[in-house]
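Project standup — Tuesday

K.O.: blocked on the structure for the chain from last sprint. Re-posting the sequence here as requested.
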Amino acid sequence: MAIITLTSDFGHRDAYAAILKATILSKDPKINVVDISHDVDQSNIAQGAFIIGSAFRNFPENTIHIVAVDSLGTSDNKIIAAKIEGHFFIAADNGLLSLISELNPEKVVLISENGKSTFPSKDIMASAAVDLANGTMLEKAGSDYAEMKRFLKRSVRANEHAIIGHVVHIDHYGNLITNIKKEDFDTYSDGKSFIIRIGKEKIDSINYSPSEVEASDCFVLFNHLGVMEIGIKHGHAGKLLGLDYDSQILVKFN
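H.V.: unblocked you, prediction finished:
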């Protein structure tokens, strides 16, 4: 059974997410429609890219992902489809798809340009997604497109003395998700002692679970994505530590 996922900045107050889902099911009621998130902050491309980027690999290959974040944010209203890591993505050409993977797309096509729709995910993306779900080849879904907008992802600087990373997401619990990978930490720490500088806080140990610390204490662990996560038990780390998206995290090896 074909799967189409939905990620958007629609929120849940209005009916936009339900209308998009209804449009897909009206075209083909056999399709399995899965909501990833509709709580992306309005037009927050970096947040939308992190959410879909952290989720899509859990689905079977050839899943189709509609990403309706900042879908009216481009002046020319270009809608594109891309194949990345064996999955299909449909989104506005606003740079978001360039941030979801470290690999280049296998193919990108232009589905629509200068469309007049005020609801492109319903009027354009839904039809393209259903066509792909029903076997239409990506090459037939649009024309070849080599000008996909691209952003550079924040890179980590790492050596035997230090790792410098950044906060790339703050989750529902207020935990800080960074771009510091466990594999890099393990490689450069190599049994050495270390200090993790988080704002004004200094931490010298890695936890396996928040349950290891007391309420209101800070914890640092490597999460299911294999990246460093920083939190405060029963508290909002972002607010309490005064950190936000793109804040620097320093790991200093002794």
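K.O.: great, moving the ticket to review. The radius of gyration is 20 Å. The CA atoms of residues 67 and 73 lie 13 Å apart.
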